[in-house]
TrEMBL record, chain B:
Main location: membrane
Protein name as catalogued: Branched-chain amino acid ABC transporter, permease protein
One cellular component term from this protein's GO annotations in UniProt: plasma membrane
Classification via PANTHER family: BRANCHED-CHAIN AMINO ACID TRANSPORT SYSTEM PERMEASE PROTEIN LIVH, HIGH-AFFINITY BRANCHED-CHAIN AMINO ACID TRANSPORT SYSTEM PERMEASE PROTEIN LIVH
One annotated GO biological process: L-isoleucine import across plasma membrane
Membrane-topology descriptor: Multi-pass membrane protein
Compartmental location: Cell membrane
GO molecular function annotation: L-isoleucine transmembrane transporter activity; L-leucine transmembrane transporter activity; L-phenylalanine transmembrane transporter activity; L-valine transmembrane transporter activity
Membrane spanning residue stretches: 12-32, 52-81, 93-114, 140-159, 191-211, 226-254, 266-285
Organism: Liquorilactobacillus aquaticus DSM 21051
Family named by the database record: Belongs to the binding-protein-dependent transport system permease family. LivHM subfamily.
Classification via Pfam families: BPD_transp_2 (PF02653)
Alphabetized UniProt keyword annotations: Amino-acid transport, Cell inner membrane, Cell membrane, Membrane, Transmembrane, Transmembrane helix, Transport
Length: 397, 292
């Protein structure tokens, strides 16, 4: 009898809990639109800290943390003459779309954040849009590159979705131009990451813009380690170059295995490769004749004051060269700061308005202007690797 | 023709890794009818152990390989003792779900402790390429092929020629009867886990050296492919697992070489479905009627 009672109570408790959670999911109604700012400015981070994209997510977290620490050290953000500190609320979306949606709901409804940085991937980013739009809280993704990420199905722009990186079409067509004009490659093999919008999107953009012949087109999955079979099949195709858009963990292996198989043609990639780990995985002697498009070049950075300061501070804090992802995340935070200062308000709806007006913002990754589709426009460079080190950086117009 | 032989070499070096992993699946299944989904993650542990001892204790490759086999063997025994032994008499599905749980635990535990970034494995063996009639083969590929063949032979000897091996075979036929004639059930099962896990550990270190990149999720896909290999060869059969591993490796290479790389994983799973429909006991498996 007693046991039955306990069971009943437990059941009731569970029901209550579930009800509570469901209630938590519904949007809180406030008098004005969005989350108003309190004593501190709350920035939420919806980030891939575990799961498949955790490598990029954790790099971005470092950049975000560093930006916020710097802002707070300097007294905070100036909101209409009053300095307010920034508090960070970091939540892990586990590289999962459903978790990303619930993390976004928690951030905007429970934590009442004023703006969100993240997520790193387009898939997780798209999943959070309904929740943040309902709550009128803007988000800046450091690295969601899909062209449609900031757009609604109808083609209209998503009012609360921004990014700090290029969109795929821009980067893919630049690589195509570079391969055809600068490298004089007439036959190119495309080897793209099939498991992300990033890889497939870039491959598509490259193929569309490339004027030469696509001699072969193959795909791999994230986490693949063996590319020998694909590379061997490229061998008798008489290719002048390989275009391999993807992230450094796989492209590093492709570079290594291509060179070991005796394929010495140029390998061109995208900003997912811009990480010192690429040369570590590929081996310095193999990482030669390798090119990639990137907004953020350690060489160009030396001429840019903001970037130089960032590189130095990053090295001091984390004892490694700053990866692109950290730089993009760092810029995302400062873009939000800029929007707050311009609008003289840290209310979430106002921040969204401010973000649309960012022009010639002096970021680590170049001068950023947000266009009408909420993309970050900034100069692009192609970096060349020789013996694992960046040996040249070419600006492509 | 050169390209063809090159692809065969590629397929064999990939297949030998699947074969080593498949052995662990097949032995554990043969003995306690459990598909140990955490097996791929033991392979990851082996790779990380190799990374650690080479970087910190400056082991040479052979020593790293052997120590990884010992460490992974111990891990396998511990996992069996903590996770599967208490469930020995529960329904099979319970143990299966537990295996998936252990797999998640190992993956995310390692990601939590050491970060989920891909790391570069220290290159203790300098790569040398040999050119035989236009076909390139590296010393590392040869080493992987030879080491895995030697390990498979040793395993076969242990199972066929030693007392423990006889006990293993007895338990796999009928564990109650084996216990009646004096076979120590727990010890035999522990030993099987140790053997299978040490094979996975060896595979981990070799993969680390070969591809030069390790991460906490590296065991996921090879683990599932090795499971397919074990089923194709006939789950429970040791020679079947080796053959299945090589077959899957060659098949994957073939699919990629004809330009269908986007479907390479799909083809492997299609093979699994076809085998399960046409010959569920696999190539070398015996069709044993289960007693009711």
């Amino acid at each position: 009898m007693k046991r039955k009672m306990i069971k009943k109570i437990m059941g009731f408790g569970t029901a209550m809990l579930v009800a509570g959670m469901l209630a938590g999911c519904s949007t809180a109604k406030t008098a004005s639109k969005g989350n108003a700012a309190g004593k501190t400015i709350k920035i939420g981070v919806n980030m891939e800290l575990s799961g498949a994209a955790a490598g990029y997510g954790n790099s971005q977290k470092q950049g975000i943390q560093m930006a916020v620490d710097q802002i707070n050290k300097n007294g905070g953000i100036n909101v209409d003459g009053k300095k307010k500190k920034v508090s960070l609320i970091i939540r892990d979306n586990k590289t999962s779309t459903s978790t990303s949606a619930s993390v976004a709901a928690q951030l905007v409804n429970k934590d009442k954040v004023n703006a969100i940085v993240g997520p790193a991937t387009t898939n997780a980013g798209t999943a959070q849009i309904p929740n943040i739009t309902k709550a009128a809280v803007p988000s800046v993704s450091p690295s969601a590159t899909d062209p449609n990420y900031t757009l609604q199905k109808s083609g209209k722009v998503q009012p609360y979705v921004f990014r700090a990186c290029y969109q795929n079409n821009f980067q893919g067509s630049t690589a195509a131009k570079f391969a055809y004009t600068n490298l004089k490659a007439k036959r190119v093999a495309v080897l793209a990451d099939n498991s992300s919008d990033y890889g497939t999107g870039l491959a598509k953009a490259f193929k569309k813009a490339y004027k030469g012949k696509i001699a072969a087109s193959q795909y791999f999955q994230e986490g693949d380690k063996d590319f020998n079979a694909i590379l061997t099949s490229f061998k008798n195709k008489k290719i002048d170059a390989i275009y391999a858009p993807g992230y450094y963990s796989e492209i590093g292996l492709i570079v290594k295995q291509a060179r070991q198989a005796g394929i010495n043609v140029p390998i061109i990639g995208s900003d997912g490769m811009a990480d010192p780990k690429l040369a570590q995985i590929a081996g310095n002697e193999n990482a030669t004749n390798v090119y990639y498009t990137t907004p953020f070049s350690t060489r160009v950075a030396n001429q840019n004051g903001t970037a130089k300061k960032f590189m130095k501070a990053f090295k001091e804090q984390y004892n490694e060269e700053a990866p692109t992802f950290s730089a993009l995340a760092y810029d995302s935070v400062y873009m939000i700061k800029k929007a707050i200062e311009n609008e003289k308000s840290a209310d979430s709806a106002k921040i969204a308005e401010g973000l649309t007006k960012i022009k010639n913002f002096d970021g680590v990754t170049g001068k950023i202007t947000i266009d009408s589709k909420h993309n970050a426009n900034k100069p692009i460079v192609v970096e060349t690797l020789s013996n694992g080190k960046v040996s040249a950086a070419t600006e492509i117009k | 023709m050169q390209i063809f032989f090159q692809q065969v070499i590629n397929g064999l070096s990939l297949g030998s890794i699947y074969a080593l992993l498949a052995l662990g699946y097949t032995m554990v299944y043969g003995i306690i009818k459990l598909i140990n989904f955490a097996h791929g993650d033991i392979y990851m542990l082996g790779a990380f152990w190799g990374y650690y001892v080479i970087n910190v204790w400056h082991f040479n490759f052979m020593l790293a390989l052997l120590s990884a086999m010992v460490v992974c063997g111990i891990c396998g025994v511990i996992i069996e003792y903590l996770a599967y032994r208490p469930l020995r008499h529960s329904p099979r599905i319970t143990a299966l779900i537990t295996a998936i749980g252990v797999s998640f635990f190992l993956e995310n535990g390692m990601a939590y402790l050491f970060g989920s970034n891909a790391r570069d494995f220290p290159q203790v063996v300098k790569q040398v390429n040999y050119d035989i009639g236009g076909v390139r083969i590296s010393n590392i590929q040869l080493e992987i092929l030879i080491t895995s063949c030697v390990l498979m032979l040793i395993l076969q000897l242990i199972i066929k020629r030693t007392k423990m091996g006889r006990a293993m075979r007895a338990v796999s036929v009928d564990n109650a009867a084996a216990e009646l004639v004096g076979v120590d059930l727990n010890r035999t099962i522990s030993f099987t886990f140790a053997l299978g896990s040490s094979m996975a550990g060896a595979a981990g270190v070799m993969i680390g050296l070969y591809y030069n990149s390790i991460d906490p999720l590296m065991g996921l896909t090879p683990g599932i492919k090795a499971f397919v290999a074990a089923v194709v060869g006939g789950i429970g059969s040791v020679p079947g697992a080796s053959l299945g591993g090589f077959l899957i490796g060659l098949l994957e290479t073939l699919v990629q070489s004809i330009g269908l790389s986007a479907y390479k994983d799909a083809v492997v799973y299609v093979v699994l479905i076809v085998i399960l429909l046409i010959r569920p006991m696999g190539i070398f498996g015996k069709n044993v009627k289960e007693k009711v």
